[in-house]
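Field log, afternoon session.

UNIT: design team B
ACTIVITY: writing a sequence onto a fixed backbone
BACKBONE:
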């Protein structure tokens, strides 16, 4: 691991941890839920999704996360930890396929933050 990668991981971990501590919602798209699994898996067992890829889901569960299978236009909401995830390009071939999932994720994040779209 390079020093730059280590710094990025430390910064990401600090940012995500602060979001959880201060009850700020986190949205993670595509493969980004794997970062959430790596940061929080052993701490709070977040419920997350990357879609239906069994190998990736298994790897995230090994890190301590709880993977939920979801379609490209669905979201998985971990209300306790205020984390919302959607598969995006893990399943979709085009923006039109994953746009509904992103729209749902953003709407849920806004709702959790107490903001209306």
């Amino acid at each position: 691991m390079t020093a730059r990668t280590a710094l990025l991981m430390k910064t990401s971990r600090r940012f995500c941890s602060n979001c959880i501590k201060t009850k700020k919602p986190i949205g993670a798209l595509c493969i980004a839920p794997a970062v959430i699994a790596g940061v929080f898996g052993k701490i709070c067992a977040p419920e997350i999704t990357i879609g239906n890829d069994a190998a990736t889901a298994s790897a995230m569960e090994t890190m301590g996360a709880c993977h939920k299978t979801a379609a490209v236009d669905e979201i998985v909401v971990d209300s306790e930890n205020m984390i919302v995830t959607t598969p995006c390009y893990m399943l979709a071939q085009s923006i039109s396929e994953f746009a509904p999932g992103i729209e749902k994720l953003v709407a849920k994040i806004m709702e959790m933050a107490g903001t209306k779209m």
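LOG NOTE: The chain has a mean pLDDT of 89.
NEXT ACTIVITY: expression trials, pending approval
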